[in-house]
Amino acid sequence: MLKVKVKVRNKRFSIPVPYVVLNLVSLIITSKRINRFINKAIEKDGSKFILPEIERKDLKPLLQGFSKHSGVILVETKLKDGTEVEVKL
Predict the structure, then answer these.
(1) Global pTM?
(2) Residues 1/81, Cβ–Cβ less than 8 Å
(3) Where are the transmembrane segments (predicted)?
């Protein structure tokens, strides 16, 4: 399970993200229909950026690696205002 821990103004909270949710999100972002929809929205905004298509087979090893390496800290940062963010597998 992916855990996002945030501390803002001396209040701490943790957001657990199950691997099932990560798999569902990967299905959504690899969808060609969703990709076309996002790129049309970006074009309407006037930006020249294009979101590249991502293949599901390219994300699968990444998701499998998440489950194999649980407990690893991916991101840990502390801002000047005291906000702390930690993303942990």
Answers:
(1) 0.61
(2) no
(3) 12-30
Cβ-in-10-Å burial (0-12, 13-18, 19+) of 23 comes to middle
What's residue 60's pLDDT? 86
Match 């906000």 to its residue by tokens.
83
pLDDT by residue (tens digit) across 18-77?
A: 888 888 988 888 899 999 998 888 888 788 888 888 888 888 888 888 778 888 888 888
Whole-number pLDDT of residue 80: 85
Contact (CB, 8 A) for 9 and 82? yes
- Any idea what DSSP says for residue 51? P
Cβ atoms of 39 and 50 closer than 8 Å: yes
Contact indicator for 88, 5 with CB cutoff of 8 Å: yes
CA end-to-end span of the chain, whole Å? 6
Give the Cα separation of 22 and 17 in Å (integer).
7
